[in-house]
Each structure stands twice: as structure tokens, then as C-alpha cells.
Amino acid sequence: MSIRAPRKGENYELSVDLNSEYRDKRKDAIKRVIASMTVGKDVSGLFPDVLKNMQTEDLEQKKLVYLYLMNYAKTQPELVILAVNTFVKDSEDPNPLVRALAIRTMGCLRAERIIDYLCDPLNRALKDENPYVRKTAALCVAKLYDLKPSLVIDNGFLSRLHEMIADSNPMVVANTVAALTDIHKTASTAHPSVPSSDPAIFNITPHILNKILIALNECTEWGRVAVLNALSRYTAQDEKESEHICERVVPQFQHVNGSVVLAAVKVIMIHMRGVRREDFTKQLVRKMAPPLVTLLSSPPEVQWVALRNVNLLLQKRPDLLSNEMRVFFCKYNDPLYVKVEKLDIMVRLANDNNVDALLSELKEYASEVDVDFVRKSIKAIGQTAISIESSAERCVNVLLDLIGTRVSYVVQEAVVVMKDIFRKYPSTYEGVIPTLCANLDELDEPEAKASLIWIIGEYAEKIDNADELLGTFVDTFTEESYQVQLQTLTAVVKLFLKKPDSSQGIVQRVLDTATKDCESPDVRDRAYIYWRLLSTDPGAAKAVVLGHRPPISIPRTTVPPALLEELLGEISSLASVYHNPAETFIGHGRIGADAVQRKGTESSDDHAFAQKAFRTVVAGQQAENLLDFDDVPAQEEPSGLAATRILPSTPAAASFLSGTSTNPLDDLVSIFGGMSASSAHVGAGSPAFGGVGIGDGALGGTSSGNASFGSGVDAVGSLDTGHKAQEDLLVLF
């Protein structure tokens, strides 16, 4: 039982008023209880006192008491049973509003003790003469199925729902469709392999189709959404039926509710797949454009949802809004998330006819105060240049005007965009390179620096002072980001291959720095590869580094075709807003017992795989030495399965192969410590890279390349000494 309120304070005063002999005082006390409950105060201690005021002829007071019961039924389940008699009595009240209110409240209580008492009142309500009671009871069946499916099936509520689709009242039909759809989803989720003959599965037949199409135009807006969602699940039998559905749904485009409009668009896009008449398809697309444009006059949040759905539609039907470019121009008070979506759509709609208006608009956006929006606007100019070849020159001129503003973030983003334009149109706009190089001091972001370095390396033969420009980055090589280091390394090698006479010093310096002082393994590996190529075969180096690269392009779609078709069937849902299937973001974080059990099985499998991998490493003693570039073949030793016949002779290897090792690191060290010198040692007398130093042949000068690789090779070579094996392993890994 609940604890009575203390004889002082607000709750005590409310308790006194709730038990007052005056009706008005009791009603006022209930209002104050609801007000306290609404702001988060705990008034559950007043449950018995509020329950006493349930039996009343005042409909407003009854609604307030029912609201209180719905809120605290879970915390006071033993007291809710006291309200059952009143609920049953109200379900037989002459007033249909009271009958519907009782059924709705009993369905919302979600207390197991009341479920059994709900069946008889619900059965009567489903057959009630008043349509308001019937439509309320239809939704109550879905709520009851969520709590106890067997009770719904045993009492024949599902069969009754299927009969109610033929009801004469359109609102009853709409609520019945909504309830059956909800039950269908619940049953399909709980039992994916449930047969189609199961009563919980809502199969839409041509007979049901005609019934819900008749009710569509007379429902409320939310009823229309439920009916349209059901129509999107229906599979038309032939082209004629697809056209019939589209014709009946098209009038919903004129509805004032955006959810109805998007649901209608979804139905049209799905059933257009079965229409082969080109003229009819064009007619539907033409009728679809005005309602989508109208959605853009909604509040920003609704605008954004509409824009995300429009983005998907344009990927399927690029001609949908081809004449509506100006509608997507950004307003000064649009939030950033709306502006970004509009930019993306404007680039998709760009063509030869409207590109001038688009470029002038984007140029204006580049002078805004929002840095992120400015960057995205400049990036949109580059995307336009890549998409429409005839507009490339105009886009480059706009970018040069923006670079002339000398605003740091504008210049840097413009340099990045110019790099993409050079990749799309090589050797076309070389006249802008001096302007870009003149702004070298303005660049402080890694991406902008890397872009300019790429341009200098790509056109090194046409830039007289290319070695000086790249030299500034070589001087600060170790201080730059990895992205800039990689680009500098490649650009200097390109410079050497194009101007070998004047750039030997800079390429020697950058390779030496990259292999000795750089922390990034990616940069070191690339430097070693370039060093090897240049020292052995400059022709191969030229073929690799200066090889032909295909021009870049912008894909017309941002999602795969199969996923696009799936998302078009989910328009007006979160899936179409996120551009991801629903299963990628729904249901995460809820772990049941079966999931925990599966996780434990996976963990044991991971352990087994780890043990197997360990044994494979031990057995594969004859591993290839990646740092050994000598052409002299190693002595023949058993490898793979053959090695496993020799290794068990040592205790450490035997424990590994049996999976019973207690100290894997020590056993690993002891195994590798006994390896033969021929399998791990690199000859000390031969220089790295097969005896060819960087000074030999290709690069000239002294052979200083051997020292660059000494430390790494020595570490591998020293593995044949048992007392230093552990230290050398730590050096390597």
C-alpha cells in the first residue's frame, strides 16, 4: 500500500481538498494535482484520494482522473485494480465520449492486472453503434496485442479488425488500417518467419485496396498517412492497377500537411515502377514538383526534412525540379543545416541554362560571415566546374576573384578546389598557377598546403622556381602534418624526374629526412619505395610516379542504386532523412539474453582463432624478410606444414602448437632466438637495396643511402643471437 502524505505540506492540503464534501473544491484539487504532476512533482501518494473522484458525471473531471491513472498506474499496480469496476461501468455509459474514454484509458494503462478485465468492454466497443467508439477500440486492439498477443487472437479481435475494414465510416477504416499495420510490424519483428496466413499478418488484397482507396479522401490527415503507408506496401497486380492507384493518390499532393504530401510522393514513386507509359510518368513527375516546392515555405526543421527527401528524389528523377533552381537559393536567416542541403540540391540541378545564376549566387555566399557556409559554397563552385565542362572557365574566373579577396579561409578553400579542377581538366588552366603560388604564405591548413604542393609537383616543368617553392616545405618537413609530408615527398620526386639536373640536392635531402627523422611509417615506407625506384630503375620510377591518371568526376548518386530504391520506399521516415536503412540506427543498444549468449559464443570463437593464429605464426618460421632486398636466394629450409614437423622438438614450440602456453612472449622469443642466421640476417658486407646506393648511377654523389637503412636491417639481423632476441623484437614491434 502507498504511504499516506504527512499532515502538513502541499500534498496534505490536496488530500484534504480531494476528500471535501464540495464538488467544486474536489475538482479544483484534481486540477492542482495534475498541474503538479505535469511539472514533475511526485503526487503518487494521493492515488487513493484521486481514485475516489473517478465516479462522476462531470466529463472534464473524469478526463483529469483518467490522465492521473495513466501516469501512475505502473507505480501503483495494486490500486489500479480498484478502478476496474468504474471502467467497466463507463464502457456501458450512454454517452459515446465516456465509452470511448474508458476504452482508451484501459488500453493505455499497460497494467497486467487490468488486461483480463479489458476483453469484454473491448469486444462490445468493437461492435458499438457509434463510429467514434469503434475507431477508438480499433487502436486499443493494437495496444493490447503489444502487451499480450495470445489474448487478442483467442478473443477473435483480429478477425473483427479485418471485418472493420469494410466499415462505412472512413475514420474507422483509417484507424483499423493503422492498427493492423502496427500489429503486422510487431508480429513480423518478433517472428520473422511467420507465415502469411497468420491472422496477425496484414495482407492487402484488391478487395481491401478498393475499400481503403474509398476512405482515403475522407479521412483526417493522420488517417490519410496511415492509409498511404499501407498503400506503399501493396504490390500491384498489373500496370493498369498501378496507374489506378497513382491517379487516386495524386489529389493528396494538395493537402496542407507535409506528412500527407510526402506519404503520397512515396506511394507514387513506388507504383511508378510498374508504369510503362512514358507520357503518364512525365505527367506524374510534373504534378509532383509544386507540392515539394510548397514544403520549402515551412519552418526550418520541416524544410530540412523535405530537402533531405528531395535530395533522394533528385537522385532517382534528376528532371523532377529542373526548372525550380531559384526556389533553393539560400535566405539570410536560413540555419546552416538548411543552407548546406540547399547547396547540394543546387549543384544537382545545375545545367547550361542556369549555371550563370548559380555561380553569381555562390559568389555572394562566399562573402558571408559563416566560415563553414563559405567553404561549402566555394566547394560547390568546384563541383559545378567538374560537372559542367562548359562552365569550367567561368568557375575558374569566380575562384580567381575570390582568391583576390586575400581572406585566408577563402583563399585556402579556393586552392583546394583548383586542385580538383586541374585533376579534371589537366593542362587547361595553367595560367592561374602563378596566382596560386603567390598566395603560398597565406596557407596554414594541411589540405590547402597539400593541394598547392600537388599543383607545383604536377606542373614542375612549367614553374621556373618550383625547387624554391618546394624547398620551403622541405625545410619544415618534420614539422608538417603527415598529409603535407606525403605530398611534399611525391612532388619533390616528380620535380627530380622532370628536372634531374637542378633538383638532385633537394630530392636527396627530402629522402634522407623522410627515412631518418620522420615518425610516420607511411611516409617512411613511401620514401623507401621512391629511394629503391630511383636507385635501381629511373625509368620504372617515371612510369610509376608520372603515370597517366584518369580525370575525376562527381557521381550522380550518393547512395548505391539498390539502397536508393529501398530508401525511396521509406520516404517521410527517418531512413530517408538519414539516407541509411532503418536497421542501421534502430534497435541498437538493447541487448537481450540471447544477444549476450551470442556475444559469449563469439568471444570463445575469437579466443580459438587467436590460438590458431599463434600456432600458425610459430609454424611459419621461414617467413619472408621484407627488408631483405638482396637477390641472393636464402638457403632452403622447411616452411609451412613442413616446419611443424621440426618445431615441436622445442618445449616452447610444443606448448604453442598445443595451445597451452603460459607465457606467449617468452616462448615466442625463445623460438625466434634459435632461428638460423640465413633466415633473418641481412649481409653486413652488402649495401642495402642490393648494393646500389642512392649515389650510384641514377643520383650521383656519395653513397649515403646505406646508412639510412642500417638501423632497421641490423635489428632484423640481430635476431640470430639468443641473448638479444627479446630486445630486438621490441625494437621491431
Element layout with pairings:
Elements: H1 10-18, H2 23-38, H3 47-51, H4 59-72, H5 77-80, H6 84-90, H7 96-109, H8 112-126, H9 131-147, H10 149-154, H11 157-164, H12 170-190, H13 206-216, H14 221-233, H15 239-249, H16 258-271, H17 278-294, H18 300-316, H19 336-349, H20 355-365, H21 371-387, H22 392-403, H23 408-424, H24 433-438, H25 446-458, H26 466-475, H27 482-498, H28 504-516, H29 521-536, H30 538-545, H31 561-568, H32 574-578, H33 593-619, H34 651-658, H35 664-673, H36 677-680, H37 705-717, H38 725-732
What keywords describe this structure?
single chain, 733 residues, mainly alpha, 38 helices, 0% strand, disordered C terminus
Provide a descriptive summary of the structure in words:
By secondary structure, this protein is mostly helical. The chain is 62% helix and 0% strand. The protein is built from 38 helices and no strands. The protein has helices spanning 10-18, 23-38, 47-51, 59-72, 77-80, 84-90, 96-109, 112-126, 131-147, 149-154, 157-164, 170-190, 206-216, 221-233, 239-249, 258-271, 278-294, 300-316, 336-349, 355-365, 371-387, 392-403, 408-424, 433-438, 446-458, 466-475, 482-498, 504-516, 521-536, 538-545, 561-568, 574-578, 593-619, 651-658, 664-673, 677-680, 705-717, 725-732. The protein starts with 9 loop residues before the first helix and ends with a helix. The model is unreliable at 589-604, 621-648 and 674-733 (pLDDT under 50).
